[in-house]
Amino acid sequence: MYKVCHMTSAHPRYDPRILEKECTSLAKAGFQVFLIVNDSKENEQVNGVNIVSTGMTFSGRRARMTKGAKAVYKKALEFNADVYHFHDPELLPYGLKLAKAGKHVIYDSHEDCYKQISIKTYIPGIIRKPVAKIFLNYETKVSQKVDAVIFPAPSPDGNTIFHGRSKRDVLIGNLPILGSDREVDVRSNLSQKTICQTGILTAARGVTEMIIAGYRTGSKVILAGRIADSYLETLKSMPEFVCVDYRGVVKHDEVKKIFKESAIGFSVLHNVGQYKDLTNLPTKVYEYGSYGIPIIGSVTPPSLKSFLEDNHCGIAVNADNVDEIVNALDYLYNHPDEAVAMGMNGKAAVERDYNWENDADKLTALYKEILEESV
Fold first, then answer.
1. CB 242 within 8 Å of CB 215
2. Mind listing the pLDDT tens digit for each residue in 310-349?
3. What is the pLDDT of residue 178?
4. Lower CB density within 10 Å: C or N end of the chain?
5. Strands 264-267 and 194-198
6. Strand pairing partners for 243?
7. CATH number of the domain located at residue range(s) 186-353 in this protein
């Protein structure tokens, strides 16, 4: 039995893409799977995946990116795995070390880090572009040394942003796992005016505008996911925050409960960074669709607007226009039959075209291909 080790210094142990999709699929395919994380919880086995903690937590971005990354790497070395699969850009130096030591290594890039660095507000504006360029060059160097790079979104040419920058680039999306118990009483939830957004919560993802629009329409705004302490304090200082029910970082089972409580799912992205031209959609959009919840999304990127309009499953708005968001909410509240129909259209689209099952096969095929090369 081949031993594989997934490494994350930044994601929580129950991260849906890492644990529920990738690690679980590999365990089902017969691999012995370890997931190394930074937290203070006990080791445990979930879905056949051995979750191993470093036993350490790190306060602040710098400590997480330096001490946290090193802690995960040192713990991962203990398992002498056949394949190491890492998920965070701060682990790039350790992926390179593992590759130089003769290990099979996969870099799983969850987003276009170059574009994201270019808009990070904690980096002084005058040096953002140079820092992003330095990162891009280093990321390319490592990508050419490891066995493969996984990316969740295609480029316009159908490849990924790592095509030509790596030995092997593989497109593996972050699509929902289909299953039972995905029925939501959207009509009842519309009468309660309950709306939600899950995942990483940032200003660039439209959370501020969502809260203001929710307050103006008398909605209950459920939020769940990671949020920077400083941004959370900013939101709490807003008078409109009284309509918010922030659940924190929760397990995927709790996310499912949130969807069942909700009438409308939000993904209103600002036209910045990688959001300008995403060719895939935020995972939450597919998740909302899989539960039959109508969606309020943004007109940019064009792929999101097209998904909503082509499948007749939601309303596209300008992210920075609160009035448009308010009007979209009021329309759905006042037209429950149409809102329910939108939700069912989204569900049909996800069940037909946008689910994890096909990508799970691509992931296990990649592992087998890499391992066979060393036989």
1. yes
2. 999 999 999 999 999 999 999 999 999 999 999 999 999 9
3. 84
4. C
5. parallel
6. none
7. 3.40.50.2000
Average pLDDT, the chain: 93
CA gap 99, 105 in Å, rounded: 6
Phi then psi dihedrals of residue 145, to 5 deg: -100, -30
Q: Are strands 49-53 and 44-46 parallel, antiparallel or unpaired?
A: antiparallel
Q: How far is it, in rounded angstroms, from Cα 43 to Cα 53? A: 6
At residue 316, φ and ψ (nearest 5 deg) are -100, 135
* Residues pairing with 317 in the sheet: 298
Say whether 354 sits in a helix, a strand or coil.
Answer: coil
Give the end-to-end CA distance of the chain in Å, rounded to a whole number.
Answer: 14
Q: Domain extents for the chain? A: 3-175+355-372, 186-353
Question: How crowded is residue 103: how many other Cβ atoms within 10 Å of its Cβ?
Answer: 19
Separation of alpha carbons 305 and 322, rounded Å = 17
Q: Residue 67 carries which DSSP code?
A: I
Which strands, in side-by-side order, build the sheet including 220-224? 244-246, 220-224, 194-198, 264-267, 295-298, 314-317
CA distance 114 to 252: 29
Q: Provide the CB-side half-sphere exposure for 122 (13 A, CA).
A: 8
Residue with tokens 């959207």: 186
186-353 and 3-175+355-372 share a CATH fold: yes
Q: Phi/psi class of residue 234: alpha, beta or left (left: φ > 0; alpha: ψ in -120 to 50)?
A: alpha
Question: What does CATH list as the number for 3-175+355-372?
Answer: 3.40.50.2000
* 115 close to 38: Cβ distance less than 8 angstroms: no
Reported as a single tens digit per residue, the pLDDT across 271-315 is: 886 676 666 688 899 999 999 999 999 998 888 999 999 999 999
CA distance 93 to 99: 10
Contact partners, residue 155, CB within 8 Å, separation at least 6: 161, 163, 279
